[in-house]
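Homework help thread (please don't just give me the answer)

Our assignment gives two proteins as sequence + structure token strings and asks us to describe the second one. The first is just a warm-up. Here they are:
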Amino acid sequence: MSKRYLVVFTQSFEDFRLPELESICELHQIKLIRESYSDSHPYCVVTGVSDADIHTILSRCVLIQFVAEIWAHCTSRQELCGCQFSDHAPLPGSFNIILHSFGRKVPMTEKIDLIEKMEYLPLTGEVDCSNPDHVFYICENYTNKKDEGPTDVFFGPLVGRSNRSMIDSYSVKKRLYIGRTTMDAQLSFVMANVARIDRGDLVYDPFLGTGSLVIPAAVFGAFSLGSDIDIKALHGWGKSTKKGEDKYQTHQNIEGNMKSYGLSSLYLGSLASDFSTPLIRDTPLFDVILTDPPYGVREASLKVNSDNHLAQSQFSLSHQFLELLNFAARTLVIGGRLVYWLPVIRDLYSPDCLPQHPALSLLHNAEQVLNKKSARRLLVLRKTRQATRDDTAHVRGDEVAHGNFRELYFAKSS
């Protein structure tokens, strides 16, 4: 009989959990089966996988806290305390039992009382809270019945914890070079995961900025390059955005970041160019296009004018995103992924306002709420066939949700 596992997600970015998990499983050809899941709580029951598969998933996913094997799934503590575990051989060595709850803060005295009632477990060693040989979890879900007790009580041994230390290791707060719109580390790694970036891939960011997205690509073993119209951002010229600093130093740039992380050999460099007239040849070249196009909110959108000078762009954001899809359809390999952010006004959004292309298939559409008025959606598209001359990106419905996003973002509520 296949083992059942409890995946415990982080309590943030709920809309991104399954896209990240499914993308990592697809990358490593892991046939995971979801038995139950709701984004209203962090617990997901899965089966069809092995301990080795779980460790592979945990090595990449940053929106998972830990995974435990399910020895018991009950509807109350009383039912849990009546479970028999005769099918499991006695485990020698020290152990620790941890209670994890969602929807209610369980007092310490209550935790200790519950754990002491589980003396019948097949454990022969001593309790060790600091460095145990075996860790067991009791996970309680109080989503719907906070006052009456948990709706679900899971129990079982820890299989492994995720590699969320990556978020701290590559934190923007510790980074040598950042800008006002630098993507935070957690979302950067989520984007790289839903893009299915693998060792040896070629990744391109046409709106490179300060290079926050080439970092997770390189961490996962891919070669990366990018382009941007803002040459100052590419080279770290001008006034620093870090508190207490005046101007960027000569080593504060994208290359400096990659060198500080030991990733220089995987960064191929950057091009200073206007994306409306891209310098990349129209040939299938990239495994992934990973990007966060400008919205014109914290940084003005730029364009090269007729005098070959930089000027604030006046064209619709929709035109920018349509050109991005056309570019991806021409330059991605078959099966390659385009992953990008689309800003929207929440009240005006509908799936029909999403840019589409005949050669690209939408895989995931996840929302990050920015405020009451606006959000941005992480869109993941896969190239399914070669684009023809007649293929072009389009919007099936009304583009108003994002076409004039900047004006609507700053408009006063009526």
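The one we have to describe:
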Amino acid sequence: MFSLSYLSSAERLTVVIFKARGLPVADEEKSTSDPYVKVSIVYAGKKLKKKKTSVKHGAVNPVWNEALVFHLGQSFLSNISLEFEVFHDRIGARELLGRVQLGPDASDEELAHWTEMVRSQTAVARWHHLSGASS
């Protein structure tokens, strides 16, 4: 679950990563994962800005409550998307647990969340399903 808010007067997009539930188990030995979330601003297929949360060790239902702030002009909102990727932190590598993308070109719940954020003056929080999880 995460929230999105855009403050046009400050040209600031705030993403608050609250929590996840039922993440895939990446460490079979411990029956758990060490997840973190990476949020990227994507423009014309390229990742322009990236930020990530802290790692929550031993959690398949992690709680972050972390705000990630991006500075960008309002004119960019119609041309960018936000990519959320959840990774398992592994020494020397990372393993993708899943991803979701929001923006004007998204569909279904992802588009609805984006549209509500653009029109709203307050933070808009929603759950999203991850896709592309490794097995």
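TA reply:
I won't write it for you, but here's a hint about the kind of observation we're looking for: The beta strands are 2-7, 12-19, 35-43, 46-52, 63-71, 80-90, 93-102, 124-126.
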